[in-house]
Write a structure and sequence with these properties.
It is an enzyme of class 2 (transferase). The purine nucleoside phosphorylases catalyze the phosphorolytic breakdown of the N-glycosidic bond in the beta-(deoxy)ribonucleoside molecules, with the formation of the corresponding free purine bases and pentose-1-phosphate. Homotrimer. This is Purine nucleoside phosphorylase. The structure is a single chain. With 268 residues, the chain is of the alpha/beta class. It has one domain: Rossmann fold (3-Layer(aba) Sandwich), CATH 3.40.50.1580. The protein is built from eight helices and nine strands. A five-stranded mixed beta barrel has the order 5-8-7-6-9, surrounded by four helices. Strand 7, helix 5 and strand 8 form a beta-alpha-beta unit. Helix 1 crosses helix 3 and helix 4 packs across helix 8. The longest helix is centred in the middle third of the chain and has 13 residues. The protein is globular and about 50 Å long. The model has no long low-confidence stretch (mean pLDDT 94). The structure holds 1-O-phosphono-alpha-D-ribofuranose (R1P) and hypoxanthine (HPA). 1-O-phosphono-alpha-D-ribofuranose binds next to strand 5 and helix 7.
Amino acid sequence: MKDYKKLAKHLLERTNVKPEFALILGSGLGYLTKYFEDSHAISYSELEGFPQSTVEGHAGRFVLGKFHGKNVIAMDGRFHYYEGHEIKDVVTPIYVFKEMGISRLIITNAAGGINRSFEPGDIVAITDIINFAFRNPLIGPNDERYGVRFPDMSKTIDFDWLEKVEKTAESRGIKLKRGTYVWVTGPSYETPAEIKAYEFSGADMVGMSTVPEIIAARHCGINLIAFSCITNMASGILDKKLVHEEVVQTAQRVKSAFSKVVGIALEV
Ligand SMILES: O=P(O)(O)O[C@H]1O[C@H](CO)[C@@H](O)[C@H]1O
Ligand code: HPA
């Protein structure tokens, strides 16, 4: 069992910021930390026993500071199973957040749109998940310090929080969509036949992250909401090749609306 307490203590000792919220930033969404006030960056490589980021668009550092008046810690770079990390390492930050006393988490990602009413640039609130990677970060002895053996997953996100975000966003001219996110391991993008199968299963968008983080957060009792930035239509929907550069570029194109939504989630 990992010493999450030690990692949390180490992070808290590095700055005067006592974060109330944690933020996980998806591919191309790391720019958000540029808007933080009084920010301090701590590279993952400075933390003994901490995994390292390897994906383009994921810097590999924590940034602590103030955003919309709230103390936050952001992961500018998350861990994906396809990078070769152990599944338990993918969710290490979640338990570190728990040990830091954080009770609210905002997860973001870049995702491929399966639902044909979506288009690149849409911001979609995740309201349910499908685990088609068939990996689970809770496999192995249950870490009784944090949660029960069989966590309930009937509500993966905090719907009261989301409804407040939706209302405020709408009043500021931003219409959020809702959808079910399917997790696949990657790193190859999906085939058109796979996307048809996921569509048939009820998925609205697809990605290679987020679900392990949600499972771990549910396990240790951190309230969360999660947003996908639809960066491309999923394989086979358009006659177009998928490339990661486009994912990062689209994520950056919706900078303004996406950072407003995250700001609203901190305010409401
Ligand atoms: O989920 P995030 O980290 O936003 O990244 C998404 O973008 C990458 C593929 O382009 C994959 O890692 C996928 O999961
Ligand atoms: O189309 C996609 N598939 C999987 N992951 C993704 N992340 C962004 N777009 C995609």
